[in-house]
Design goal:
Length: about 250
């Protein structure tokens, strides 16, 4: 299997559905993505788009009176349609509603893949999925030296709360042609087996993310299983997240 064949297969892959990974061809394509950095980056973007699309669908309101209209039209039928025809009509209705939802999303979708929702979704996935720590250290200077030596943002400003948190290391993530510094902390709560952190700060050039905030205000949101805070300072975009509640996140802001 080559990269393009893997992309064709993974276009239908839903990362939130474990059953997809049981498919032999999907499993083979995912294995290739682990060995191919370019395919891995493409897959990250695909999964982020799929996540945003699902969220858009969930936000689409059901047209007022649709249920009553369906019941009324069904009752108006003089005789019941054969079961096969009923199934066909039901399928057609589902397809029509899906196409309407798709049209709504296409008219309201981000203009490009480098928008803030895509960035936030991708970084949240990076935190929640197993990841290799590029540098294990609880020393701020050591982490900054490593990031600077690998051309990732290193002159970031930690909040007062993060200065008191326990560092565990860092990793460098990709965002298009830009590098993202992922600084990892521990909150002090028991960690799952194999985990080395449960609080993550992502720092990237503000200009690399479309729709990034333009002021210093905090923007709190729940993304996937993370409660997150987003803000900008001195030309950098900060994205902080942890699994928990906003009150807990507030201790680190």
């Amino acid at each position: 299997m080559n990269r393009e064949e893997a992309k064709d297969i993974l276009l239908l892959y839903r990362h939130h559905n474990p059953a997809d990974e049981s498919d032999t061809s999907v499993a083979e394509a995912l294995a290739l993505a682990k060995r191919d950095p370019e395919l891995a980056q493409w897959l990250e973007m695909h999964c982020a788009r799929e996540f945003v699309l699902r969220e858009k669908f969930r936000q689409i309101p059901v047209p007022e009176g649709l249920k009553e209209q369906i019941i009324s039209e069904h009752a108006a039928s003089r005789r019941p349609a054969p079961r096969g025809r009923q199934l066909a009509l039901t399928a057609a209705m589902v397809v029509a509603m899906g196409l309407s939802a798709m049209a709504y999303w296409l008219n309201n979708r981000p203009a490009a893949d480098d928008t803030l929702p895509i960035y936030q979704s991708q970084m949240a996935r990076n935190a929640l999925n197993p990841y290799p720590m590029d540098k294990l250290s609880n020393d701020d200077g050591t982490i900054r030296d490593y990031l600077k030596g690998n051309n990732a943002p290193a002159d970031y400003a930690l909040t007062a709360g993060l200065k008191q948190a326990t560092l565990s290391g860092c990793a460098i993530e990709g965002w298009g042609s830009n590098r993202v510094s992922m600084i990892c902390f521990q909150t002090g709560k028991p960690l799952p087996a194999g985990a080395k952190s449960d609080l993550w700060l992502f720092v990237v050039d503000q200009q690399s993310v479309k729709d990034a905030p333009v002021d210093a205000s905090l923007h709190i949101a729940r993304i996937n299983r993370l409660v997150t805070a987003t803000w900008v300072r001195d030309g950098k975009l900060y994205f902080l997240g942890l699994e928990g509640e906003a009150t807990e996140l507030g201790k680190y802001l």
